[in-house]
Amino acid sequence: MDEAESLNRAIYEEVIIYPYHKSWPLLFAEEYDRLLLLFPGSFLAIEHIGSTALPGLSAKPVIDILAGVDTMARADALMEPLCQAKYTTSMEFNASLVGRRWLMRWAEGRRTHHLHLVVHGSQEWQQRLAFRDRLRNNEEIARRYEQNKRVWAAKAKLDREAYTAAKSDFIKEVLRSAT
């Protein structure tokens, strides 16, 4: 399989929820170290977010990484160098985003990592960490999220954007209830 075919498969892969795997924190740690080595001084903080950051929770096996930068101009300046460092992105998709940039890594036709570039300390930064921490600290909410994700994945098996949209109301509800 060539690179273009592998990337295409990663973009259109099925939404499948897998049981928790103990390698997920290690995969984050490896990528954390790689990013710091390749881009020293570029990130104010790097955090493991998403379901793979929640011990015991089933998830899509994609490591979500939140990387804090000082400005969106810095995030934009990092896009090309990150693409040269085994990430890829959709400039069209990123043009639709406010307050963040998104990239992914993939291997053998499947996504392995999502990288979210966000201004450190911004509302976007705080909300993503607050959601992760709320689920880490409340097993009942985490289990409800996991059950819902299975339903959403079954309904949107071939539509990652619909799956992501389905999660948004739950995330907003959890963040509202935390305040």
UniProtKB/TrEMBL annotation:
<protein>
    <recommendedName>
        <fullName>GrpB family protein</fullName>
    </recommendedName>
</protein>
<dbReference type="Pfam" id="PF04229">
    <property type="entry name" value="GrpB"/>
</dbReference>
<dbReference type="InterPro" id="IPR007344">
    <property type="entry name" value="GrpB/CoaE"/>
</dbReference>
<dbReference type="InterPro" id="IPR043519">
    <property type="entry name" value="NT_sf"/>
</dbReference>
